[in-house]
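Batch 3, record 17
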Amino acid sequence: MQFWVPSSYRGTDPTGQSKNYGAAYEAQTDTSNGNRMLGNVMGMTPGGVRAPNGVDFWWDEEGHRNCWSANRAGAGTAITSDPLRLPGCPGSSEHHPINPAKLAALAPCGSWDPQDEVLQDPPGCDWFTAPREPR
Amino acid sequence: MGRIVLALGIVIAVVLAVATVSHGGGEQLGKGALVWEQKPHVYRNAELPNDRVLRGVVRNDSLRIMSLTARDLDVRGADGSEMESAAVFAPTFIRGVFPENRGSEIPESEQLRIGLRACIEPGKAVPITVSWRERGGRAARVDYADGSLPVPMGGA
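Prediction for the assembled complex:
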């Protein structure tokens, strides 16, 4: 799962990473760039037993130079992802905007509170709803 | 005398018109100090057919600083009934650095950072995400301390 977090919500930046792009660069989008997912075997236990994931790779579609290559699924399964098509490496140097519907799916999860009857499963957040068993 | 009354009437009408415009254009954008900066969008997650998520940006149209707690916001239907809801003053998921079971012990600065609270200066705007469960009727408004924000149709 890969998603963007704007710099202003990360608080201070003691590493100074945000400055690497220069003042003109929009620091709000300084994360979620240049990530490479390479050579993974998905949907299989270390012992080689088939164990498919619901979704192998989830990406909010934000950033640049993010890419997926040489990943493979276990026997009898195929790599699954959201979005359905992921960019191969080296990825695009053009900044890709976020999918707003995916932002909407993540944000309510920030209100989670295990001590509150409603917020222990916040409306709009599907992290606490067990999905169907993948086949 | 008649001319004076007419002139006063015109002045009052102009003042009211200017006040309405400067306050965001009326109740379509909000009733009270907060108004939608732009029309918000409502989304529906296919995995959660009864849930809706509204994303938008609210502006403080008053002349005072507004301090809001996300948990105090209520989503209500057209009949005023309260719905199960959640709200954060953030555009996306922000991970907190304090354990979630510390409740009110989370420092104010952290609550502001992760969107559990908002402190909005006059004329300034902040992102907000509100979600709710619809059981029967649809949501009509989001209530806060001394006002409400209308919920647009959507979520298909």
